[in-house]
Amino acid sequence: MPLRANFSYEKTAWKKGYSLIAGIDEAGRGPLAGPVVAGAVILKTTDFTERIDDSKKLTAKQRERAFSELSHKSIFAVGLVDNYIIDKINIANATILAMKRALFNLIVKPDFILIDGILRIGVDTPCEYIKSGDAKSLSIAAASIIAKVTRDNIMIAYHKKYPKYDFIAHKGYGTHKHIYIIHKKGPCVIHRKSFLTRII
Q1: Distance of CA 107 to CAs 44, 63, 110, 126, 147, Å?
Q2: What angle is formed at CA 118 by the lines to CA 89 and CA 190, rounded to 5 degrees?
Q3: Can you list the domains of the chain with their CATH numbers?
Q4: pLDDT for 1
Q5: If DSSP states are collapsed to H, E and C, what string results for the chain?
């Protein structure tokens, strides 16, 4: 049976005396269009009805249900960085900026942070960086769900504005259909120009 996100990292931090532990993850590093979105989550409980796990392991409906439950059982915030800034500072720096913005937007300041991946975000709060953390830490998994659902909803809104690009289907990722549309119609204002050099 595949491993699922759990509270082992949080428990270790609690034993060290930390109490407000935030998980951070992002969604949207790879797409050709739209923002990168980070989620920061402080869980209020360890008891969930819905599955809280790496957002990539969940269906869209499972993520929506989990998001709804997390909205009642956590303190969370998001940070967004749009395609224009991504093109200016590159996706790695944009991801760091999105994570910092998510942390800044939290109404409660955490005293310890669990961060998915190895990108050092440069904050004063004690941190632990966990490779594939969204599949290991429940707080990071929750952040991945918050970030993913938020970003998907943004791309659905963009679909209504730019329906010819079918953002509702691919959410800006480089699918064959999306690349075909770009070649046929050219990019729109939310496309990442720095990413398009790979395909056009």
Answers
A1: 14, 23, 10, 18, 17
A2: 35
A3: 8-154 (3.30.420.10)
A4: 38
A5: CCCCCECHHHHHHHHCCCCCEEEEEEECCCCCECCEEEEEEEECCCCCCCCCCCHHHCCHHHHHHHHHHHHHHEEEEEEEECHHHHHHHCHHHHHHHHHHHHHHHCCCCCCEEEEECCCCCCCCCCEEEECCHHHCEHHHHHHHHHHHHHHHHHHHHHHHHCHHHCHHHHCCCCCHHHHHHHHHHCCCCCECHHHHCCCC
Tokens of 178: 């999306």
Phi, psi of 185 (to 5 degrees): -110, -15
pLDDT means over runs of 10, the chain (200 residues): 78 96 98 98 95 96 98 98 98 98 97 96 96 96 98 98 97 97 97 90
**Residue 3: per-residue pLDDT:** 61
Q: Which one-letter amino acid corresponds to residue 170?
A: H
Nearest to 76, CA basis, from 58, 52, 49, 57? 52
